[in-house]
Amino acid sequence: MGEGIARPEDERFMAAAIRLSRWHTGQTSTNPSVGCVIVRDGVIVGRAVTAHGGRPHAEPQALAEAGELARGATAYVTLEPCSHHGKTPPCAEALIAYGVGRVVISVTDPDIRVSGRGISMLRDAGIEVTTGVLEEQGRQSLAGYLTRQTKNRPYVTLKLAVSADGMIGRKGVGQVAITGPEARAQVQALRAETDAILVGIGTAISDDPLLTVRTPGLEVQSPVRIVLDPMLALPLTSKLVETAREVPVIVVASEDGSPLGTEGGNTPTEPAAIDSRHAALEAAGVEVLYCNPYHPEVLLLALATRGISSLLVEGGAKTAKLFLEAGLVDRIQLYQGPVVIGDGGIESPLQPTDIPSGFAHRGTYIFGADRLDEYEREN
Ligand code: AOF
Ligand code: ZN
Predict the structure, then answer these.
(1) Closest CA to ligand 1's atom 20
(2) How many separate domains does the chain show?
(3) Does 57 sit in the ligand 1 pocket, CB within 6 Å?
(4) Residues in CB range of 316: below 8 A, 6 or more apart
(5) What's the pLDDT score for residue 112?
(6) Is the Cβ atom of 81 under 6 angstroms away from ligand 1?
(7) Which residue segment(s) compose the domain that 195 sits in?
(8) What is the mean pLDDT of each run of 10 residues along the chain (379 residues)?
(9) Nearest protein CA to atom 10 of ligand 1, as residue
(10) Do 131 and 190 reside in the same domain of the chain?
């Protein structure tokens, strides 16, 4: 059987599968969070999302719910069903065994063990397969997985909150509220679906942030917290270090103890001082990773290698610039609040009127008195 023709209802059911997949984004370890709905005579008879931790995959769970009703039904899957005997049997085999008549796929799987083979298995079994339905939205829902598979690095989101006068904070006063509670809740939700969150040492010292998820019920979804800290200046009394045993903290130190721009502090530190800080941080449960701070691509490769598929860069200005200038930002979330900072403001590395070229505007969202504009890199 050849390429199936898309039908009018396909986008509606694929949209339902994509929505479902979002439930476990960031909670399926190195596996993508995939959504699957089984539809018979216009009614959803089975639905599932990849389980927490990554297994079981979505399809066998949705098929089990549909049972006999799956025979002759259509399965909508956000990612090509797997064809490999990995930690679970191939999902393509399960779809065949249940007698599904048609499979509609949004995105094909770049995993070399699958990549087209899942589709061939289904077609060889006489199942009609339609691909590419709502592909752009499907790719967006699988962005972390696809970026790690194809680029060997996590999908990077830069989040900035900018005041009405273009500032991200005020010098020497720690955290300044630029957005209101609705926008802050939204950022908590973003953290909850992200594998890791990163700030520079300047922000870690001046703001003393926790960087966890505090939304009731979602606390366990806190991302791994990373500080770019060339000279290991993170205070042992910081909230990050004090909570390192509950939610992991990685400090990324320079291989030679040299500062990152001016953010790292004053002068290069004596090796002996670095060694004793290293020991103290490790004793507090912090992981120290030595990595060239001028080349964030090296750090991103190291993060991808340990299974991190998505990274949220939350500040400050120098860290944001480092990632922007290296061309390593995939998505920008720019919040604008009505607050005016005035004198002593720290200028935003990015103004709403000055988004770098190569980014497409994806949407504007209103949260209370604040506005979020989202931009995504085009390629
Ligand atoms: C599917 N449905 O829900 C997911 C899939 O380590 P394993 O054996 O679990 O295999 C991981 C691979 O399975 C992953 O790289 C991707 O190709 C696929 N994920 N496939 O059919 C799912 N999560
Ligand atoms: Zn599978």
Answers:
(1) 82
(2) 2
(3) yes
(4) 168, 169, 199, 200, 202, 203, 206, 263, 346
(5) 87
(6) yes
(7) 153-377
(8) 77 98 95 98 98 96 98 98 89 98 97 91 97 96 97 97 93 87 95 96 94 93 96 96 98 77 51 88 97 89 96 94 96 96 92 92 96 94
(9) 86
(10) no
CA of 302 to the centre of ligand 2 (A): 26
- The CATH number that applies at residue 264 is 3.40.430.10
Cα of 78 to ligand 1 centre, how many Å?
12
Of 59, 80, 193, 314, which one is the catalytic site residue? 59
Query: Is residue 16 domain-shared with residue 66, that is, in the same domain?
Result: yes
Neighbours of 325 (CB within 10 A): 12
In a domain, 193, yes or no: yes
Which whole-number Å values give the CA distances from 123 to 84, 93, 102, 208, 349, in the listed order?
A: 16, 11, 9, 56, 51
Q: Are residues 101 and 220 in the same domain?
A: no
Which residue bears the tokens 């909570």?
A: 243
- For 173, the token pair is 């006063």
Q: Atom 3 in ligand 1: which residue has the minimum CA distance?
A: 57
- Nearest ligand 1 atom, CA 91: 21
117 lines ligand 1 (CB under 6 A): no
- If asked whether residues 179 and 240 sit together in one domain, one would say yes
| Catalytic residue check, 59 | yes
Report the pLDDT value the prediction gives residue 258, as an integer from 0 to 100: 62
Domain assignment of residue 2, yes or no: no
Cβ–ligand 1 distance for 60 under 6 Å, the answer no
Show the tokens assigned to 44.
Answer: 């959803």
Q: For residue 261, what pLDDT is reported?
A: 46
Predicted confidence at residue 91, as pLDDT, reads 97
- Same domain membership, residue 85 and residue 176: no
Q: How far is 313 from 315, CA to CA, in rounded Å?
A: 6
